[in-house]
Amino acid sequence: MSSGIGSLVKVIFKNFDVIAGPVISLVYPLYASVRAIESRSHGDDKQWLTYWALYSLIKLFELTFFRLLEWIPLYPYAKLALTSWLVLPGMNGAAYLYEHYVRSFLLSPHTVNVWYVPAKKDDDLGATAGKFTPVNDSGAPQEKIVSSVDTSAKYVGHSAFDDAYIY
Length: 167
What we know:
This protein has seven helices and no strands. Helix 2 (16-38) packs antiparallel against helix 3 (43-64) and helix 2 (16-38) packs parallel to helix 5. The radius of gyration is 33 Å and the shape is elongated. It has helices spanning 2-14, 16-38, 43-64, 66-69, 75-87, 93-107, 125-131. It is mainly α. Belongs to the DP1 family.
C-alpha cells in the first residue's frame, strides 16, 4: 500500500506543472475575475483585466516560440512561477509588470516606417524631374522616350481553352 502512495506522490511531483499550471493560471483567475465583476470596486477589475492581458501575451509568446521553448527544460516551472507571481493577490505582479513595462511600451510612440524619408519643402517637381530626364550623346534632352508602340503583332500561340489546341 505504501508503494502505491509513494508512486502517486512521485507522479504528482514529476507532473506538478501540468497539474498546478491550469489551476493557478486559469481556474483561480477565472473565479477571481467573476468575483471582481460582481463587486463594486474597480481596483480588482483592473487587476484581473491586467492579468488576462498579460496571460494572453504569454500565450502568444508560447505559441510563437513553441519549438524553442520545448528545448528549455525548466520552462514549465518558470512559467508556473511567473504565473503564480502574476496571480497571487498579495504580490500584485500583474499590476507591477503592466505599469512598469507593458504600459510604457504600449504608450510610447513607435516609428512604424523606418525607411520613409520625407521630401524637402523647397523641392520643385520640375527640378527633380529634370534630374532624371534622359539625354542624348550631345547632352541635350531627348524629345521623346517612346515614339510609338507597335500594336500590329498578334499572339499566334494557342491556349488550352482553344478548340484547335492539341493535347
